[in-house]
Design goal:
heterotrimer; A alpha/beta (about 300); B alpha/beta (about 325); C alpha/beta (about 350); A: about 300 residues; alpha/beta; Rossmann fold; 2 domains; 4-stranded parallel sheet; 12 helices; about 15% strand; B: about 325 residues; Nucleotidyltransferase, domain 5; 3 domains; 5-stranded mixed sheet; 13 strands; about 25% strand; globular
Chain lengths: ~300, ~325, ~350
């Protein structure tokens, strides 16, 4: 049996957990490739036009996996807890996929996660193990092991980011959902341009999760979405160590449409660039926008240094 | 004297007129630019049609109008039928191709798909977001490339390797075009790429989720562009029929509808000598500020619309 | 102390029961929000972020209009989609614009505990009494229900009235009289009397009229300006209009469990906001053999966008045409009319061939 994993949306958050879990259980899995033009094109063709770019990319990955595996893993967030909510997309995505591809004999494998309660996640994975015909003890071991791998990977990311913060270059905090900024087609080019411009991108989503969650309310009290809480909560952690902030969103992201506006209105002491990506912009246009933003930061910095 | 039926399709870019006889044969037709003034365009249209009819013994007994200015021109010509362009196009297409299942229509500023089963419209869609991928998009790109829009299709056919162009939005397409030209793509490949982009755009936007079944008929101004026709056939993998009168289908359809209505009232070409004008104003009776449009014939108001509530009614 | 003059943005005709709740329950003066118009939209769009959903813009514009009409206390509710976060940004924008008002954001009350909620409400008027609210609330809720019931009846019949304007006239009188109601008995009598009047209006309805069901996103479906007066347009074409979405069916008696069960074949897991009801109603209208369904939403409404692939499947399975409308702040009137007229032509032709 082979499980197909779409390399999009929650994959970027849970890849270590998923991969280790399946590996430990001896289950084969196949990953869709990095997002490319064709995946986006196919995904767009299957999507309702107004859907957000990230979900179009997701459908492209699902489509790639059809006929290449026995099951496609489509996790979903089960419920809202008192600890925040998720974009409604994550509640609906399982059924959306099932309906869009219903004529393509697709088998979906799902588990429900609640981002804040560890034992609910564990229960979900035990259930997943059961569907895959594994003993409870096996699944439990695999899950706990995978959790360790995940934790290690996150710590590594944080350490690496701390190292980058020491670099003597212009540093730009990039606030973007993990599934956008770590996407090879829509996110990576931005990071590359920033690096080409001799700046160091600092990824907001890498910030220590607990600390970020403890922070967000300083900036926005009623912010409901967990993903955005983590991003907003990373601002106090990094703000004083960066020179500017980029808010990167995938068109027309619902939560970001409000949150970005709040940030622009409330963060007054750092230059902010609101960058909306729709997957159609060429590299040239993107370079121009990022370059001019960085130029402005440099001018301002030079001006200040001159004055001092 | 025999009876004739006049159909006028008046869009934002072009104005089309057709006169049919009792056997539904086209006796006169004309296609010209609206140039932002529908009243004037229709007067020019009527003058030409009148000339074409000069020797025949046809008397126009009813008028139908369609297109975005259908209401205005309907009031001007005293039309017995004022119909939306989707229905008009469907009726027109079915009169030429009774077996048609899918109608692709791309005009100056909008595009539509109409699905037909057993002679009735079962589904349709129109472009929603913007004019990218319609006729005006192609004309402006042609201008940018310094070629005549009439030559566009012919040039596209010379290409063996179409250049991929991002054409979801006119602005992005333009910058992509400049970029592709800079890095040395051949003109014919870019032109072919634009044709393909129009088709891809259409299928992804208007045709999204619609099952395209053969026979497919392609009509509207852009159907005259052989490059786009070829791109459709390639991407759909089925033949696409284009009638010689494909640019007149809407006008033909509404002429047929007018005839079918059996409402007869003599129409005289001399309305070209009458002065018509429209006056738009914002109603001040509530904060809705509806834009009321009044149409005057020699300073006498003949129709008005635009009010959302009774307060704004013009009596 | 300055008199408290509170308000909540306009939605359909619900300002009438809200007025009762605010005046008799919260013990404050209620500013009737000006009706939603072009001006509301212009104001709201000017100060809102571009890509936010249209209801946010309508609310913001209407907040500004109510402030201009004298309100000094504004209330924003919570919700299950972006609505949940409307309040904080609305408050920020109004503050940046220099408006000094008491902005009561019910999203701050994360708890569903009624007492916590009440403490949140107290920000409207610290002097309010639970007793007063408890006394008036059942009447307020009943008034919502009666308005919904009357409007359901109107939608199904107004397209066939013999004397144009008859229903609108009685409807306006009904809403006017409701404003004077304070007691349960009065409410019941008013409702009973007016339903008699509605039912007495002469109509000329064919035996088998065209029937269209309307489904979609909460705000856009209920605020007629935001959907280009879709229901009125349909009525003028001589169509029976059916719409389930209203305050009664969603906020007062939402049959979540039943809906989930009914749509099981199309949606295995529970969704949020109005999308489940959208799917459920589409199924119901399809099963009942309606001639068509119209789906309305504001641009970018995620829950409703996600419902669309399911609606497309329902449309295929039951062979029922569905027309999709997305309204943003720049929807063209011409495009809207063309689509709607073509829809009418299509369903009437289908009906004729069925016969």
């Amino acid at each position: 049996m082979i499980i197909g994993i779409p390399r999009a949306l929650l994959y970027h958050k849970y890849k270590h957990l998923w991969k280790s879990f399946f590996k430990e259980l001896g289950i084969d899995y196949i990953l869709s490739p990095d997002t490319n033009k064709e995946i986006l094109r196919k995904g767009s063709a299957y999507s309702i036009d107004e859907s957000c770019l990230s979900s179009k990319i997701y459908l492209g990955h699902v489509e790639w996996l059809l006929d290449k595996c026995d099951y496609i893993l489509i996790p979903r967030f089960s419920d809202y807890s008192r600890n925040g909510t998720v974009c409604p997309k994550f509640l609906a995505i399982y059924d959306v996929v099932a309906n869009i591809f219903r004529d393509r004999s697709i088998n979906l494998l799902s588990y429900s996660i609640n981002p804040k309660v560890t034992h609910v996640e564990m229960a979900a994975f035990l259930k997943l193990g059961k569907i895959l015909n594994k003993k409870k003890s096996q699944s439990l071991y695999a899950y706990l092991n995978a959790k360790q791998v995940e934790k290690k990977a996150h710590l590594l990311e944080i350490t690496e980011q701390e190292r980058l913060l020491q670099e003597n270059k212009l540093k730009i905090l990039v606030l973007a959902h993990r599934y956008n900024i770590f996407d090879k087609y829509i996110g990576e080019p931005i990071l590359n341009i920033l690096r080409e411009q001799e700046t160091v991108p600092i990824i907001g989503d890498i910030a220590p999760q607990k600390e970020a969650i403890a922070n967000y309310a300083q900036i926005s009290e009623t912010l409901p979405w967990v993903c955005n809480r983590e991003l907003v909560g990373s601002i106090p952690i990094y703000k004083d160590r960066v020179d500017g902030i980029i808010l990167m969103s995938a068109f027309p992201c619902g939560p970001d449409s409000l949150v970005n506006e709040i940030l622009i209105r409330r963060i007054k002491d750092k230059p902010i660039l609101n960058l909306m990506i729709d997957g159609q912009e060429g590299k040239a246009g993107m370079e121009t926008r990022l370059e001019s933003f960085i130029d402005i930061i440099r001018f301002k910095k030079d001006e200040q240094n001159g004055r001092n | 004297m025999s009876k004739g039926y006049l159909g006028i399709d008046i869009g934002s870019i072009s104005t089309k007129g057709v006169i049919i006889d009792e056997n539904n044969n086209i006796k006169a037709s004309e296609y010209l630019w609206t140039e932002g003034d529908p009243l004037k365009a229709v007067k020019r249209l009527l003058s030409t049609l009148k000339l074409q009819l000069a020797d025949s013994q046809i008397r126009i007994v009813t008028v139908g109008t369609t297109g975005s200015a259908r209401k205005l021109i309907g009031a001007m010509t005293g039309a017995s039928v004022v119909k939306n362009e989707i229905t008009a196009h469907a009726i027109g297409a079915m009169s030429i191709h009774p077996e048609v299942r899918t109608i692709i229509e791309i005009g100056g500023q909008d595009s539509k798909i109409i699905l037909i089963e057993n002679g009735i419209v079962i589904d349709y869609a129109m472009n929603t977001l913007c004019a990218a991928g319609t006729g005006s998009f192609l004309s402006s790109q042609a201008q940018r490339l310094h070629i005549n829009i009439e030559d566009f299709g012919r040039i596209a056919l010379q290409s063996t390797k179409a250049t991929p162009i991002a054409a979801r939005c006119t602005v992005f397409a333009e910058s992509d075009l400049v970029h592709k030209a800079q890095i040395g793509h051949k003109k014919e490949d870019i032109v072919a790429g634009l044709c393909k982009a129009v088709v891809a755009n259409y299928l992804n936007n208007v045709g999204k989720g619609k099952k395209i079944i053969s026979p497919v008929v392609f009509q509207g101004g852009v159907s005259k562009n052989i490059g786009v026709v070829k791109a459709f056939e390639e991407l759909l993998g089925m033949p696409v029929a284009v009638d010689p009168n494909s640019h007149l289908t809407g006008a033909l359809g509404v002429a047929l509808l007018a005839k079918k209505s059996r409402v007869e009232k003599d129409f005289f070409f001399d309305i070209t000598d009458i002065e018509f004008k429209t006056v738009g104003y914002d109603c001040k009776k509530c904060s809705n500020n509806c834009e009321i449009i009044c149409i005057y014939r020699e300073d006498q108001i003949i129709d008005a619309w635009g009010n959302k509530c009774e307060n704004g009614a013009v009596h | 102390m300055e008199e408290i003059k509170a308000s909540y943005p306009q939605l359909g005709n619900y300002c009438t029961p809200l007025e009762l709740l605010f005046t008799e329950g919260f013990d404050v003066k209620y500013i009737v929000p000006p009706p939603i118009t072009k001006k509301t939209l212009a104001l709201g769009s000017r100060y809102s972020p571009d890509y936010v959903c249209a209801p946010f813009k309508y609310h913001l514009g209407n907040f500004i209009e109510t402030i201009e009409a004298g309100a000094n206390t504004l209330v924003q509710t919570g919700g299950v989609c972006r609505l949940q976060y409307y309040g904080e940004l609305h408050e920020q924008i109004l503050q940046d614009l220099g408006y000094r008002v008491n902005f009561v954001n019910m999203s701050k009350v994360q708890d569903t505990n009624p007492l916590t909620f009440y403490n949140g409400l107290k920000e409207i008027n610290p002097q309010m009494s639970l007793q007063k609210i408890g006394k008036i609330l059942p009447i307020v809720l009943k008034m919502f229900e009666y308005i919904d019931e009357a409007e359901n009846f109107i939608r199904k019949n107004i397209g066939f009235e013999s004397n144009k304007g008859a229903f609108e006239k009685v409807h306006a009188d009904f809403l006017g009289d409701l404003r004077r109601v304070r007691k349960k008995k009065e409410l019941k009598n008013t409702y009973r009397d007016y339903m008699k009047l509605f039912k007495g209006i002469e109509i000329n309805k064919p035996a088998d009229p065209l029937k269209v069901g309307i489904i979609g996103e909460y705000y856009t479906i209920m605020e007629p300006f935001s959907n280009h007066y879709l229901e009125k347009e349909l009525a003028q074409m001589g169509i029976v209009v059916d719409r389930w979405m209203n305050v009664t069916n969603t906020l007062i008696h939402y049959p979540k469990k039943q809906i989930q069960k009914r749509i099981k074949n199309y949606a295995e897991y529970p969704w949020v906001a109005t999308s489940m009801a959208t799917i459920d109603r589409a199924l119901e209208f399809a099963r009942k053999g309606y001639d068509g369904i119209i789906h309305v939403k504001s641009f970018g409404c995620t829950p409703e966008i996600d419902a669309m692939p399911i609606l497309q499947n329902i449309s295929k399975d039951y062979k029922i045409p569905i027309l999709y409308f997305t309204f943003d702040t720049q929807t063209s009137e011409t495009g809207f009319n063309t689509r709607l007229e073509a829809f009418y032509d299509m369903i009437i032709m289908r009906k004729e061939t069925k016969k």
